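Private note to self, pasted from the team thread so I don't lose it. Backbone tokens:
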């Protein structure tokens, strides 16, 4: 039985809630840069579009 893959949203949620710092500097810079496109709404991860006019619900791979 394959092990479940970690939810890709977890790192963004942790960073947005507590600004968790990763030990790998390159990964941390990547997370900071990418997290600018995300926001939490009612504890759900949402992605902003380029003009920040539209929010898209982020789902897990299993939901997709």
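Design output:
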């Amino acid at each position: 039985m394959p092990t479940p893959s970690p939810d890709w949203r977890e790192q963004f949620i942790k960073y947005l809630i507590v600004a968790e710092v990763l030990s790998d500097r390159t990964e941390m810079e990547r997370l900071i840069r990418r997290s600018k496109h995300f926001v939490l709404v009612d504890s759900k991860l949402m992605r902003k579009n380029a003009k920040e006019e539209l929010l898209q619900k982020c789902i897990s791979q299993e939901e997709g």
